[in-house]
């Protein structure tokens, strides 16, 4: 089945970053530091997400934040004074790194909107509606860290065809006892890395799960998602659920899953953050000896 969605461009130009959550699982650290700025070794979670979007050719980044999390905007935008101070102290390499990481104040491709109340992921995406460029949009959840080259969003954009499915969600196969923690696809077929589907079920009982293909924090959504979100009643927990809006559009724009090639870490949990830090450190030869030594110590202690 194909869908006639070609009246609007299939080019993905905008990425939405929902960063308004309060990170309660990481308290007390997140009392003063937003979860998205917590480091994986020496690199904040939000930087991984920004770099992934940049590598995918995203033209505009919309950050949906909370008024209490001004530190994210300070981090994302360029600090000319700090860079100048570093250069005066002979630390040009650090100044260059900060300059390259930042989204300059003069760039129109970075913008912030506020989500004052925690009304769900769907509501966060809807808050960005007035700032997106025409066409489909990407949604990147920074606390779902996916390590690998090419980046997950780059892979998804390369495979995206809104004539086949207007909504594409990143998926991974999970163990049967884990399906209750995810949105799960109702699978109708497969085409390479694409998982064709006719809907999804949010956090099903393992006995009733339609598959083991779990949705994780990367989406490419047809522009119709905003109209579907506007007309959506509150769902589970009194929140506007993005999965409900995606399911609503299945009959008109279609949906599919995408099996990405990278390794995903749930950095919304302490265990996932620790796993990500070890994995990322393992990619750096500077820490290989340290990690090997820790491994030997753990084996000896058993």
In a few lines, what is going on in this structure?
Helix content is 32%, strand content 24%.
Can you walk through the features of this model?
The protein is an alpha/beta fold and 302 residues long. It has a single domain (14-301), classed as Spore Coat Polysaccharide Biosynthesis Protein SpsA, Chain A (Alpha-Beta Complex), CATH 3.90.550. 32% of the residues lie in helices and 24% in strands. The chain has a nine-stranded mixed β-sheet with strand order 5-4-1-6-11-8-12-10-9, sandwiched between helices. It has a two-stranded antiparallel ribbon with strand order 2-3. The longest helix is centred in the C-terminal third of the chain and has 14 residues, at 288-301. The relative contact order is 0.17. The model has no long low-confidence stretch (mean pLDDT 88). This is UTP--glucose-1-phosphate uridylyltransferase. It is an enzyme of class 2 (transferase). It catalyses: alpha-D-glucose 1-phosphate + UTP + H(+) = UDP-alpha-D-glucose + diphosphate. Belongs to the UDPGP type 2 family.
Q: Which helices and strands occur, and which strands form pairs?
A:
Elements: E1 14-18, E2 39-40, E3 43-44, H1 45-55, E4 60-65, H2 70-76, H3 80-88, H4 92-101, E5 110-114, H5 121-127, E6 137-140, E7 144-147, H6 152-159, E8 167-173, E9 183-191, E10 194-202, E11 213-221, H7 225-230, H8 242-248, H9 250-253, E12 255-259, E13 263-266, H10 270-282, H11 288-301
Helix pairs in contact: 3-4, 5-8
